[in-house]
Specification:
By secondary structure, the protein is mainly beta. The protein has a single domain (about 25-320), classed as Tachylectin-2, Chain A. Helices cover about 5% and strands about 40% of the residues. The chain contains two helices and 23 strands. It has helices at about 5-20, 140-145; strands at about 25, 40, 50, 60-65, 70-75, 90-100, 100-110, 120-125, 135-140, 155, 160-165, 170-175, 190-195, 200-205, 210-215, 225-235, 255, 265, 270-275, 280-290, 295-305, 310, 320. Strands 18, 19, 20, 21 and 22 form a five-stranded antiparallel beta sheet that branches. It has a four-stranded antiparallel beta sheet with strand order 2-3-4-5, with no helix packed on it. Strand 4 (about 60-65) and strand 5 form a beta hairpin. The longest helix is centred in the N-terminal third of the chain and has 19 residues, at about 5-20.
Length: about 325
């Protein structure tokens, strides 16, 4: 074998090995401007649609086909169609769903610190990009008797529809009418978790209900202590417990995502979504200490170990992308 042929073969082999090692990767944050409290849904058009607290006025809508590359496509409301039940209130923590073929978005409306006048409303659209029509305020704190009634989350279970909500005054749930636009007549609220939590999300996996929530301070810049936690139950309405069997009603839980050397304030996660390999992914927001200009959008894979979710939330800059 000549020296030139040998060098050629070595070069081809090296390129092949390099190609085997090459993976499509991304870096957090996936959106590097403030986009707190994300909620996501996949529509029949193949796009994922993501909604967030209105650091962009009137609740921004983004879309993506791969969970990484996002385009801002509009807002849920305009200045003219914006809800008004809480004057000068902000629109926080939207929760998007498909109910009976309609896109139903629950939202909080609140003035910071006005914990007895804030409340939860609902809007409806035929498509995920809108236009959304505001339907009604479902309730306020002072009408339902739960202080700081924000952060809605909708779930269907055994053919019935429920809304969960709450922020550091207990997490509560209540049944809805079949269209999802009103509280079910005669239904009563039920408390399922204690006063450490907000940002409720419940996910059913292998026979358990997993209650994801956030603890700590969300909005103090690099001093934020927001942390994502989880407990689980065999029943939708609990009791939710940690690995030791201690109850979330008494503010016990497992830590899922917390601060690292770069990102702090890691909380208020989205729904879990799956890629084409069946891998689970979770959005949440955080504050980037390298560029602390808002609560940026983060994405990490969720793995399941011994029937509990695990998230690798290190500050690594090269993460294998979801598969689509």
């Amino acid at each position: 074998m000549s020296k030139f042929v040998f060098i050629y073969l070595i070069s081809i082999f090296s390129l092949g090995m390099s190609g085997c090692r090459t993976k499509a990767v991304y870096s957090n944050p996936v959106i590097n401007y403030s986009l707190p409290d994300p909620s996501i849904i996949q529509a029949p058009d193949g796009y994922f649609y993501l909604y967030a607290t209105e650091d962009i006025p009137n609740i921004p809508i983004h879309k993506s086909k791969n969970l990484i590359d996002w385009e801002l496509t509009g807002t849920v409301f305009s200045k003219q169609t914006r809800p008004t039940f809480e004057p000068r209130g902000g629109l926080w923590a939207p929760d998007i769903n498909i109910i009976n073929g309609k896109y139903i978005l629950y939202y909080s409306m609140s003035v910071w610190g006005k914990e007895w006048t804030c409340g939860i409303g609902v809007a409806v659209a035929d498509t995920p990009s809108g236009p959304f029509t505001d339907k009604r305020m479902l309730f306020r704190s002072n009408t339902i008797g739960v202080q700081n009634s924000i952060d809605p989350f909708y779930i269907e279970d055994n053919g019935r529809k429920y809304l969960f909500w709450g922020s550091f005054r207990g997490i509560y749930g209540i049944e809805l009418e079949d269209d999802g636009l009103a509280l079910k007549k005669g239904s009563e609220k039920v408390q399922i978790a204690g006063t450490a939590y907000e940002g409720t999300y419940i996910h059913k996996h292998d026979g358990f209900y997993y209650l994801f929530a956030s603890i700590g301070s969300c909005c103090e810049g690099v001093n934020s202590t927001y942390t994502t936690v989880v407990g689980r139950s065999k029943d939708l309405f609990g009791p939710y417990v940690n690995k030791k069997g201690e109850s979330m009603m008494n503010n016990h839980h497992e830590i899922l995502i917390s601060a690292n050397e770069r990102f702090v304030g890691t909380g208020h996660n989205s729904e879990i979504v799956q890629d084409k390999k069946g891998q689970d992914w979770l959005f949440y927001h955080a504050i980037d200490k390298d560029n602390p200009h808002g609560r940026v959008l983060m994405l990490n894979k969720v793995k399941w170990k011994n029937e509990w979710p695990v998230v690798n939330y290190s500050s690594q800059s090269r993460i294998e992308k979801p598969y689509f």
